[in-house]
Amino acid sequence: MNTKAIQFLVGMVLCILFSSNSFVLFQITYVFEFIALAIHTFSKQYKTKNKIIYIMLYGMIFVWQTIYNNEVIFSKKNNLFTAIISRIVGSVIVLIPIMLEGIIATKSIYSMPSVQDITVFTFNELVQNINAIAKIVENGYHTFSKEHIEELVKDLPRHNAFRYINKGSLTDEYFELAYKTLEDKNIYIIISNTGSPASEIISLFTRKQYNHVSLSFDKELKTIISYNSGEKIYPPGLNMEMIKYFNKKQDASIVVYSLAATTEQKKKIIDKIKEINEQGNAYNILGLILRNSFKPNILFCSQFVYKMLKLVDLNYFEKKDGDIKPTDLVELDYGRKLNYEYKIQFNAI
Description:
The protein has helices spanning about 5-20, 25-45, 50-75, 80-90, 95-110, 125-145, 145-155, 170-180, 195-205, 265-280, 285-290, 300-310, 330, and strands at about 185-195, 210-215, 225-230, 235-240, 255-260, 280-285, 300, 340-345.
């Protein structure tokens, strides 16, 4: 059975699962997926020891899926909203083994030393990376826990991706502080690994540790700002941020980079932010999936940062703003425009 056939078959089942409310159907899907990928792995020209390790990884994911099916999707404690969201998530996690298979297949294409030697990873490479992969699987259950889903469900009604619901959340004091930074010939880009439920779920699918990005006009981050959920204080949209809100899990961290900017460029960005604050704005939660904004000031964090940079010709790569991931702001800096400033590891021992 080839990869396309497996993906097509799983895709069909995925559609059925979205509209299903059957514990048995979910479990059969997970079992079928594991068996199909095991057969697929045995049919490939991998070394035997590699095949065993791949199948063990698929088995670990299968065990996690089974536990999630039993304890979260069909938990007796679910209410209507958590039951719906849990079922949707339970359908989506069907894709996780497919994603892993895709990584293995990609490695087999680009890591082949010769036509005669078409193994995917060497055993040493697998040993080096297996702990990281196992940790992702182990943390998956926590990521899609009932508590995380309940928090997301409670927060969703606060969002609106079609009209402005946030207006004037930034005070005159904030702008006074921002304008005072004009003598600092840098702006600052901050990527963060916050541990929020949304960030954790996004991380599982992007396979990126850092899934939020912010702007600051000073190195001490007194003017840090981005599009966010508002921390249940302000409506989701353009809001000032506080460092303490980033510390939501044991390994939470932020990394700060500087980008050279003229006084005029910084002032133009601050003026634009002031305009957005006065016009109104909202967090582009649908844009995370649709990659599109329904109004100019409805954005997600990386959209916002990229648009502000592009406004003053400080963008150092070209990409559709709806496709920008937070880590793109660092990883696509091929011209080395950014300067590393510092990292904060909140709970370092």
